[in-house]
Write a structure and sequence with these properties.
Elements: H1 21-36, H2 41-60, H3 66-84, H4 89-102, H5 107-126, H6 134-137, H7 191-203, H8 213-221, H9 226-240, H10 245-273, H11 278-283, H12 313-329, E1 332-339, E2 349-353, H13 354-367, H14 373-392, H15 395-398
Amino acid sequence: MSGTAASASTARTSGPADVDVAVEWYDVTADTIAAAGSSTQVTNSRTWAISWLSAARAVRSGPRQRAFQDAALASAVRTSLVTLLPARTAELDAAFAATLARIPAGPSKDRGVAAGAEEATALLTERTGDGLDPASVNPPYPVPQAAPGVWQPTPPAFGPALQAGTRFARPFLLGRADRFRPGPPPELGSPEYRADLEEVRDYGAANSSARTQAQTDIAQFWLGSSLTIYNGVLRAAVVQSRLPAPRKAELVALFHVALVDTQIATSDSKYTYVSWRPVTALRAADTGHPSIPSDPAWTPLHTTPSHPDYPSGHNTYSGAAEQVLTSLVGSHSREPFELTSPTAPGVTRTYTTWKVLTDENVDARVWSGIHTRSADQAGVTLGRRVASYVLRHAARLFS
């Protein structure tokens, strides 16, 4: 099984020359976004992508000297974060000063600082107005007319639809949000639809007698933000990697570029099919299948997010993350790694393979009562396809 969000203290600290600047600034990025980030996950993914794509470009732009590469990486990430999250300027400047203090003075250091700032400024300009700010991600969305199969606001808050605007944002590489749009969900009344809904009804109910404690624990663990949990996964890959600094920067950049484009594709699919959530289907007078009786009191284990069912956003994220990690570092971590989750305080799970994370995500959303298995599986496939496309065309990011 799986891995942790290790703390900055796990970086090599035996002496100034031994500090891995990629890991150091990975932790700075994570801490900065945790403290002052956006309310929308895709906006935070954008911050990661801009910061680390500019770092990867900067590190590649000069000599293969450690002084240049370390200065360029830190400068690019610092410039990006100060611009995007200015509330953390003092902390970022202190971290930057600490990094620069370890790098020997000289032309390579000076060139690195300049290259990092230049690449970050250029990319920030390039991404201006890309539609990934919170207001653009969450525009007003009219509630569709109620009908079998059609999404409606869900209890208990019955809030407005979220993330409807992400589908109009400008991807980094995908080009079109609908490039890999999956086929439609199972047709109402079909055997597949019945199997989906019965599974969620039985295993995803708050008072389920079918769901085991182990399954409940997995559902609770993966209820946390994908960005938050998978930052621990990616950190483990970076820490354990034997890649040189430029390749580590590229790994972090491509991971988050793929995740931004995946979230854009996810929004496109969700708001194309506008498929109802299990709680709506199971409570409706017409559940969509004659053999499934309505249960107005049915309640999921976890509160249903306020957007359509198909495909599962958690699983598009996990599918894309798995694809990037498998392609760039292999199917396994070099060593077992631990993962924590903000929705399961005090719980640590240990993993060695990326696919297990995906498999648990698929099950977890069913056991939470908030997605059908078809939505989960379609999400994994969509995420993998978007990530594969990003990796195939990655050279465009660096040309």
